Amino acid sequence: MKKMKVLSLLVAAIMLISLLTACGKSSQTDSPAKESTTKSSAESSTKPEEDSSKAAQPVDIEFWTFQDLHVAFYEDMAEKWNQENPDQPIKFNPTVYPFDDMHNKLLIALQSGVGAPDLVDIELGKYANFLKGDIQLVTLNDIVEPELDNIVKARVDIYSKDGNYYGICFHVGAAVIYYNTELCEQAGVDWKSIKTWDEYYEAGKKFKAALPDKYWVSLESGDVWHMWPMISSQGGDMLDKDGKPSINSPQMIKALEFNRRMLDEGIAVVAPGNYHHSEEFYAMMNSGAIASISMPMWYMDRFTDHMPDLSQKIAIAPLPVWEVGQPRSVGMGGTGTSITKQCKNPDLVKKFLSYAKLSKEGNIEIWNKLGFDPIRTEVWSMPEMMNSKNKFTEYYVTNPFEVLSSIKDEILSVNVSEALPATLDAMKNSVLTRAYTEKNVDIPSMLAEEQDKIKY
Fold this sequence. Notes:
Low-confidence stretches: 1-53
Largest sheet: 5 strands, mixed
Mean pLDDT: 88
Radius of gyration: 33 Å
Structural class: alpha/beta
Number of helices: 20
């Protein structure tokens, strides 16, 4: 009996302990469970969307360029994009390479199928190399064609082939002439009255007589920007209408013989460093030794950034022509921003590229950040452009967009084909040097000889 009584007490104790333990567990978990149920019920209609938005991870965009000035623009536009598109954020990862290195590296990456960026700047003179064979760039027709009525079409045509667009330019690249107004005033030259190249030459003679230790104009022996418009206004070009080299044309002969005469008479000087982007040239121009140069409008930031002493002394004007009535400008140079077929998110990158380079906002920023004449023509007359206050409007005597608007219907386009890179190389590396520095050169014979050497 005693044993039975002890056993009964032990069983009762065990049951009591089990009951208390169960109650303890219930008291610890019951309240959080109810809170979780209530929270889920209350937020079921809104929380998933909020979490999705907050959880959106930036998409990496690898970008290559040869021009560090472009990086600041794209980083600014990427920041604006993320503010306006929080559901599609991007992380912009730029890399700047030297000019030739980048284009060579890109060509190898596209040919091999590995290592290419998502987005890339390709310079016009190299672009044709990327339109050969099986093109490894994404077509942009779906973002370009809806904007053709709003942009200068020639600035996307130069990056097209067989009806497909592959690149979008930063600028029109309208050729203009830059005058040092202080030097002109000292020499008694009225730069505003110059309309033809003959008048320009006569002004140069007058200038040289008044200021014999200075030069009326600088000519590049290592680049084509100063003389390309001189053949375009005559109806010529580096390439003929079939895309074949045409450097021995009557138009080329006329332009080079004209420039050589100015050199021989001391009116002109070959640019120190051989082109208008050398440090030697910047120093000479900044010192007030040269009165004028012919360059595209995208050259404006070279003055502001490299020739500060000329602030409020430089005027921008339409180029002279051979005969009044000829077109006074041509769109020159350019960088076609393109998407490679190795891009992992081509649709999103297209949207960003369109936002950056085709939208009103993007084109206004191209002017404010880079000082380029943007390809979207409607912005040229907008108050944000005409009345903007930036380093360019503060530097120049004339309003760049008043000049641009005066020539907007006279901006010719250049011929582009697979032969352009080789043709430009011939001009930069041999033709102009021979034309401007070789003693007793016969320019027609030299051009015929150089034409035969071009292989592409």
